């Protein structure tokens, strides 16, 4: 028997007006009960075209230390490039089910089309199907698990990468100089040219009970950092001062999440952000995070330049693959 996809469950649920029990989160997680509606500051928005680049660095450092997340505008990726990249991704999810299953994720593999099979500790499931594949560096790409349809899929992804890679490099530099380091330090510590970029496309179908379900449960990303573009259906929430706050949708912005590896490298100066996503009653939400990850065998720990007797290492030093293994299997680091 094939895996049950959320897209299929959604089409039945939307007719019934209810969702299966295993998608109903416990009360302390339900968005209807836990979303904060009081006055909150908005996620920082940083204009990369600001002529005062020192100020940009300062804003990025502040946002990364206090929020662990920010939105960037005027980031250099043309709007039509993002639109086309999103169009081809959405097209894939709208193909007949048997077409999508041709690139289904196999057990133990990171890449492919999938649905979370294991229930979480509390026995709950999330309202999302996804597609994972690497997009950088080019020599590791496995086009067998990329969608064959639409035919423009590959070109649209190549084009997005052409602009994304320089943006990633630029963000590495701001984050590095913001720690008082040479601009190339963080990139080198993350694998230099062997750093990997893994794309995930999240497809959250309409859900008759968005107050009870979650698209992605609360987590921090394992990456160094993650660059995400959503569609125009809001849903990302961020934990700020113990409150779940909505990230505002800003057309043409890219959302930058600080992940666990930057928290470790910066010895805690940059915070890996807790976030989750909600779903929508009538509309399909989609998002396209790109996880920037060190190569599996690279050893990551607090940068020696940032550690001293007064400021001892707050994290263990270990290979990225060992970090990943512990995180995925919920073993303490
Ligand atoms: C993720 C994630 C958030 C979103 O897939 O890691 O955090 O907005 N997604 O879809
Ligand atoms: Ni995430």
Automatic annotation (TrEMBL):
Signal peptide segment: none
Entry keyword set: Dioxygenase, Flavonoid biosynthesis, Iron, Metal-binding, Oxidoreductase, Vitamin C
Residues annotated as domain Fe2OG dioxygenase: 193-294
Pfam family of the protein (one): 2OG-FeII_Oxy
Name of the protein: anthocyanidin synthase
Organism: Rhynchospora pubera
Catalytic reaction equation(s): a (2R,3S,4S)-leucoanthocyanidin + 2-oxoglutarate + O2 = a 4-H-anthocyanidin with a 3-hydroxy group + succinate + CO2 + 2 H2O
Keyword Hydrolase found: no
PROSITE patterns for the chain: FE2OG_OXY
Cofactor(s) needed: L-ascorbate
